[in-house]
Design brief:
Length: 262
């Protein structure tokens, strides 16, 4: 029997898709089946050239995602745990590797794997009363959905070490002060603000935005010289595109560009 659908996809206009986590009875805890659905949905989005921005939200008013489904894991053998690990890695990478920008809208709890889904997005908008944490060391594991790497890149070693080693929880406001949250809004306003950001992204050249993201992501782990070479390759892929020709023509003609998207 197929697992019940745990995601909702909603298109806003022609180019923005909202990916809503929808397992409310478990506060969006990430089970094996949930991981498989996230992987499939993000793969479909990655192949859709009409999508220029993705917003990741939750249908639960009090939780973005509380992390791994520990009730499911409690009965795992070592072999089953390893199988689950392989499945869950694909889900996190599915969000991280989206070729178009992704914006997380966090209200309520974003814990462990839930925080890692948000960190896998390019921008993170949080309500002031959100509760954020990477508490894995408190249950005998470490962040395994990219948390050790992504939070360190966002906030630096010492702040990341404090978050991860203490397993402490902090508010959206504290997250903004630490540099973990990109935009802080009043409670209940994260989704609307994330959709606004996505719309502003989608108004720009999709070829340029995707190549800018590619250059930034690939260059982040290299030295400056290698990063500049990566940027040059992405610039070339953009500069000789139909989007570039349309952008220049629209500027000269003082009109809104109609992006070909290729």
């Amino acid at each position: 029997m197929d697992a019940p659908t745990m995601l909702q996809l909603t298109r806003h206009g022609d180019h923005v898709v909202e990916l809503s986590l929808d397992r409310p009875e478990a506060m969006n805890a990430i089970s094996t089946a949930f991981s498989e659905q996230i992987t499939a949905a993000t793969a479909d989005l990655a192949r859709d050239d009409s999508v220029r921005a993705v917003v990741v939200t939750s249908t639960h008013p009090r939780a973005f995602c509380v992390g791994a489904d520990l009730k499911e894991r409690n009965g795992f053998t070592d072999a089953e745990m390893m199988d689950h690990r392989l499945v869950s890695k694909l889900a996190y990478r599915g969000v991280l590797d989206l070729p178009m920008p992704a914006v997380a809208a966090v209200e309520g709890y974003a814990l462990g794997g839930g925080m890692e889904i948000a960190l896998s997005c390019d921008l993170l908008v949080a309500g002031r009363e959100a509760t954020l944490a990477l508490p894995e060391v408190g249950v005998g594991v470490i962040p395994g959905g990219g948390g050790t790497q992504l939070v360190t890149r966002r906030v630096g070693w010492s702040r990341a070490a404090s978050m991860i080693f203490t397993a402490r929880r902090f508010t959206g406001e504290e997250g903004r002060e630490l540099g973990l949250v990109d935009e802080l809004v009043e409670a209940g306003g994260a989704r609307d603000r994330a959709l606004e950001l996505a719309a502003s992204i989608a108004a720009n050249s999709p070829v340029a935005v995707r190549n800018a993201k590619k250059a930034m992501r690939l260059g982040m782990g290299t030295d400056l010289a290698a990063g500049l070479e990566i940027e040059d390759g992405c610039w070339r892929a953009t500069a000789f595109s139909r989007d570039r020709a349309e952008g220049v023509a629209a500027f000269a003609e003082k009109r809104t560009p109609q992006w070909p998207g290729r």
